[in-house]
Amino acid sequence: MAPKTISAADLDDEKNIKVNLAHLFAKLKVVVTVNGVPYNPIKSLVIGGTKTQAHFTPETGELSEATNEATITAYIEDEETSTYTYECILLPQTVEANTLTVTAYLDEDRKQEKTYTHPSTLTLQGNTQYTLSLSMDHEGKFTPSSSVSVGGWDNEDIEGGELEEGAITSKDDEGKITYTVSTARGLLEWAKAVQEDNDINLILTEDIDMKGKTWPAIDGCNYVTIDGGGHTISNLTLTEGETGETGLIGNICYRCNIKDLTLLNPSITKELYVGVFIGDFASDCTMENCHVIGGTFDDRKYPVGLVSTADGSSFIACSVTSSNMNLISRTVNNNNITACYVTGGKLVDEEIGGTPTYTASYYQESADGSITAAGNESTPVTDWGEAATQMNTALSGKNYEWVENPDKEDTDRPLVIQYKTTD
Fold first, then answer.
1. What is the CA radius of gyration of the chain?
2. Confidence check: pLDDT of 365 > 90
3. How far apart are CA 70 and CA 192, in angstroms?
């Protein structure tokens, strides 16, 4: 409530101050009726597409327009036979049609998911409760619904929801900041921070799905370490910044170290030279055990690379298994490519400076499936098993190795990284 001057009208018969409170937020209930199974198959239910930050003005008791979209894990309020009620509190806001999502995860690791997208615009007002009723069949498929019932916020206790965890920040003895993230929200917090201070490190501790999120154009990084921890960032939509940069790091990376990270199904619409990891120059950088799998790049006049242009950089045990994509679009001087491979493109599309030093690196560009050995230090091979042997010799001393992909249906990804076991 806003500040106010107490008058006689605000006092009861015993001269006690009467305070009338109202809920500033809205409450959303999602009632799911599950058909065909005698138990609740939903391990967690997540609300997406709503804004989760706003400013409160004490002088007026009002909230500013909500900003910063994030997902919220709803609290399960009630469980009856085949009907399960989840709830969360939300900021007042208007959620456009086809924006509000309800995602049911059917396993603890959040790999099996079923999503409902609300087809209508929903205006959420404070001190109001909204109930969305959905049906789910035995396979987890939602039945669409366009109606939401509206009522007063009841007086029952609410446990609230769990906001997706952000970044955990730390600082070393020299003042270097590191963001440790496990969620899309945390990754976006790092992206925002590194736009203002371009030497903040990043560590991933979980796989992260960026579906539906807008990735900002990061102008560049210096002396940054990005440690993927062997994890994957999925469905990253890369947009063009004001100066044309497009990529996980949009512009120039200088003396950065990116390792143990996979980008799965990224998308780029920009027409010019771009790089999925580094959109412009990788200068004196090291990329190790970095991969791009699949993706959408539209019809292009210019090629896409793991990086756009490399100068004085090293690429170790990296791979690209995407159609019409290269490891590097253009190279300048003194680049080293060791134990890397590409299917559907080349290792380097254009050498505009000195020829890179290739060691046990291969690409498969032709339709006949033949494997090309790059440079004088790559022994010719007839199949990917032989290529893995050559590549692992070059990786002697590493705690990982290339092995043939055990998933025989995944023909576009012939080799995968396997970490060595130690006693």
1. 26
2. no
3. 14
Degrees (nearest 5) of the Cα angle 11, 16, 20? 65
More confident residue, 13 or 125: 125
- Report CA-CA distances (Å) from 52 to 63, 144, 149, 241: 12, 25, 22, 25
The string of pLDDT tens digits covering residues 306-335 is 999 999 999 999 999 988 889 999 999 999
Q: pTM (2 decimals)?
A: 0.69
- pLDDT for 140-160, tens place per residue? 888 876 678 888 776 666 566
Three-state secondary structure string covering the chain: CCCCCCCHHHECCCCCECCCCCCCCEEEEEEEEECCCCCCCCCEEEEECCEEECCEECCCCEECCCEEECCEECEEEEEECCEEEEEEEECCEEECCCCCEEEEECCCCCCCEEEEECCCCEEECCCEEEEEEEEECCCCCEECCCCCEEEECCCCCCCCCEECCCCEEEECCCCCEEEEECCHHHHHHHHHHHHHCCCCEEEECCCEECCCCCECCCCEEECCEEEEEEEEEECCEECCCCCCCCCCECCEEECCEEEEEEEECCEECCCCCEEEEEEEEEECCEEEEEEEECCECCCCCCCEEEEEEEECCEEECCEEECCCEEEEEEECCCCEEECCEEECCCCEEEECCCCCEEECCEEECCCCCCCEECCCECCCCCCHHHHHHHHHHHCCCCCEEEEECCCCCCCCCCEEEEECCCC
pLDDT, residue 374, reads: 92
Distance CA 418, CA 420 (A): 6
**Measured distance CA(183)–CA(77) in Å, rounded:** 24
How do residues 160-176 score in pLDDT, each as one tens digit? 667 678 899 999 988 89
In this model, does residue 222 exceed pLDDT 90? yes
pLDDT mean across residues, the chain: 87
d(CA 375, CA 161): 56
